[in-house]
Each structure stands twice: as C-alpha cells, then as structure tokens.
Amino acid sequence: MKTAYINAAFFTMDQKNQIFNNGLMIIENEMIIYIGSFQNQLVEEAENIVDLKGKWVMPGLVNTHSHIVMTLLRGIGDDMLLKPWLETRIWPLEAQFTTEIAQVSTELGMLEMLKSGTTSFSDMFNPKGIDADAVMEKIGETGIRGAFSYTIFSLGTEKEQQAHLLEAERFAKKYKTSANGRLTTMVAPHSPYACTTEALLESVRIAKENELMIHIHVSETDYEIADIQQRYGHRPVEYLRRLGIFDSPTVMAHGVVLNEEEREILKAYDVRVAHNPISNLKLGSGVADIVRLLDHGIKVGIATDGVASNNNFDMFEEMRTAALLQKGMYKDATKLPAKTTLSLATRVGAEAIGMNSTGSLEQGKQADFITIYPYDKEHLQPLSEAASHLLYAANGRDVCDVYINGQLIVKDRSCLTIDEEKVIYETNRLQAKLKR
Ligand SMILES: CSC[C@H]1O[C@@H](n2cnc3c(O)ncnc32)[C@H](O)[C@@H]1O
Ligand SMILES: [Zn+2]
Known about the structure:
The longest helix is centred in the N-terminal third of the chain and has 17 residues, at 99-115. This protein is α/β, with parallel strands linked by helices. The chain has helices spanning 40-45, 82-94, 99-115, 132-142, 158-174, 197-210, 222-232, 236-243, 260-268, 277-282, 290-295, 315-330, 338-344, 347-352, 386-392, 420-431; strands at 2-6, 9-11, 19-20, 24-28, 31-36, 48-51, 56-59, 61-66, 118-125, 145-152, 183-189, 213-218, 250-254, 272-275, 300-302, 369-372, 399-404, 407-411, 414-415. The strands form three sheets. An eight-stranded parallel beta sheet has the order 8-9-10-11-12-13-14-15. The chain has 16 helices and 19 strands. α3 packs parallel to α4 (132-142), α3 crosses α16 (420-431) and α13 (338-344) crosses α15. β9 (118-125), α4 (132-142) and β10 form a beta-alpha-beta unit. 38% of the residues lie in helices and 21% in strands. Bound molecules: the ligand CSC[C@H]1O[C@@H](n2cnc3c(O)ncnc32)[C@H](O)[C@@H]1O and zinc ion. The site of the ligand CSC[C@H]1O[C@@H](n2cnc3c(O)ncnc32)[C@H](O)[C@@H]1O has 20 residues, from α2 and β9. Zn(2+) binds at residues 65, 67, 217, 305.
C-alpha cells in the first residue's frame, strides 16, 4: 500500500542535504519510494494520504552508543570521575539488577529515546544476573531499530568467564537478524581494561565467525591510556590493533584521548567513533577532537552513553553540544557547522553502526522519520530558519511524531507501543529497592 505524506517541509539529510518545502514523501512496504517536490499525480496514485499540517520532517536520530539497561540509575553517582564512578557506584548497583529491573529500566529508556526522536540506536548492556532474552523481548515490542551488544567482561573464575563468553556468542547469534530485521547484534568486549587479552581474542573470533561488528569503549580517559600502556606496553589503539579487534568493522565509543598515529590507524582500519560529548564532559574525561577525526575521513556518530553519565537520551542536546564544543575548542565558529553535525546524528551515524538502510530521507531507504510542529513554539521562530533551529534551538520535547519502518510509533508525543504510566510507576517502585 502506498502512503503519501503531504503538507510538510522535508529535510532529507542525504549527501545533498536537500530541503523540500511543501514537498512530498511516498512510502510503500516500509520504504521511501519517493521524496521530492509535490507531484499531484503521485498523490492521486497513493491509497493513503497523511496530512502533516506544516510540520518539519527529518530522518530519525541515530544514537550510536548507549546503555539502555542502566536507565534506572539516572541521577545516581553524579560528579565523579569514570573509574571511581564505575567501581564504587555503578557496578555495585548493576550487580543488584534483576530481570524485572532490567526490563523496566529498558522500557523507560526506550520511551525517552523514542519520544525525543531516536529511531535507531546501538547499545551495550550489562547482562549480569538478568535474563537477556527478556530484555530483548521488551525492546522488540517497542518498534525501535537497534544493534545490541551483550557486553563481555572478564570477571569471576575461569569457568564463569568461559560460560559468559558462550552466552555472549549465543546471544549474538540468536538476535543477529530479529524483530523483522529491525534488531541486530554486535560483539562487545567492554574495554581494553575490563577484559583480559584472552577475552578480547575470543571477541575477535566470535565477530569473525559470525560476521558481526565489534562495539567497545576505547581511549576514554588519560588514566586508561597509562593503565594499558603499563599493563601491555602499548597504548589502547595499538594494543587492540595487534589483537585483531579492528579486523572486524568496529565502533569505538569515546576516542577522547587519541594521537595522530592512532587516528591514522583508525582510518586505515575503517574504525568508526561514537562521540559522547556530554558524558565525556560530565565524567571529566575531556573533549574528543572530532574535527581531526573528520579531517582524516573517519566516520563519527553522535551518542549519549547511558543516562547515569549524561543525564538524558536527548540527541538534540547531544548534537548541539558536539558542535559547540568543537567551535570553542578551536576558537573557530566554522568548525562542525549545522549541516555536518545534523548529518553525524543521522546518516553518518547510521553508516557508522552498519545501518546503511536508514539515516536519511532517500528513495530506497527505510521509512524512519520524525516530525516537529513549529507553529506554536516560540523558540522555533522565525520559521524561515528551520535548518538552523534543528541544530541550535530544538530539543527532544519538540518531537511530535515518530515513524519507524513507516509505522507510527509516537503520535502527538504519545508512545503507542509502551504503557507510559505503568513504566513510570514501576521505575520508582523498583528503584527504591536498590541498596545505595
Ligand atoms: C557492561 S555493559 C556496559 C556497561 O559499561 C559501563 N559504562 C557505562 N558508561 C561507561 C563509560 O562511559 N565508560 C565505560 N563503561 C561505562 C556500565 O557499567 C554499563 O552497564
Ligand atoms: Zn559507554
């Protein structure tokens, strides 16, 4: 069935960055089959017409690195550096997670992501003590597109670590293509510091044998660089390169502390970077040099990280912060201009996590898009500067509708796939049970 979307301004975020004011988009079988100027004949041929009534339409946002299962930990452990934050606050709390907590935490995160315009995300979750299948079931029900990683940590006895790796591989295989192709998996050794060399080598094997991407935290802090250098005689990038991690397509979260030689390696191996500007600021890790990464031709996506270090999943805030930081750091307002930054949060981010079929409004792409109704919003006036407002003035609460695969998931700010009231009630009931 063909559906025509009319009466809107379409921001394609494709290579040409086109804007079709009062344009037309036609969707058939979950795909965009036409995007462009209004054509009466095409509208007449469509079985369905959706009047978008002056809205702005753009591709759904792509969050390239998150920890959805941590959402219940928002606001806990503020104002700490990464190492003590993980070791004294986050990991002891995650150790108390049950499957019920993980499911509610996931639903809360999904609700927030969807309502703020994220249609695709790449997530690493801590599976300790929880039924990962039950979490996947919840995610599948929401309608979102995602790549999930069952995180590999080197904790416990040799036998426990073997069992953990087996389970990570089972999970990666089982969900490689699931929920009608919307959900997929990656292999995720947590980081060079939380995994043994053996676990990293096993990750390389699992990724290769199953043709999966790798998702890993790398070069997040000065401490990590010194620690890995001392333990293995190399900085993290060279250490991982030698182990073969980058022989599979890899998404590296952070990349805050990198030198020129390392950027050359990332480019040579087509390693992609998930840039988490707010988390990096909040944990006192620093500011990644995105300008240099882009100058090297490295694919960079925008990401929030988990909400315990952000403290929200608002990708509008995230991309604005990304742009402002580079301008400030370089004392050069031309760095990371609006269009470039918007493309990192959409098309380029999608490519970075291997989702080439989404991220822009183009013929042949999946129909993942969001709408914003600007007329009653003072901070989105004057209307003529819409392209600027999307980066510099809008926020996640401006998102009106969200479509994934052409399916309406959020309608007029109500999520159709999640019981919002119940999730908020359960969040507070379960969070109160955690020993802090
Ligand atoms: C085991 S899944 C992911 C796991 O990583 C931890 N985490 C969250 N944010 C960060 C970060 O910025 N760097 C390193 N590790 C992080 C947290 O325990 C998550 O559950
Ligand atoms: Zn992270």
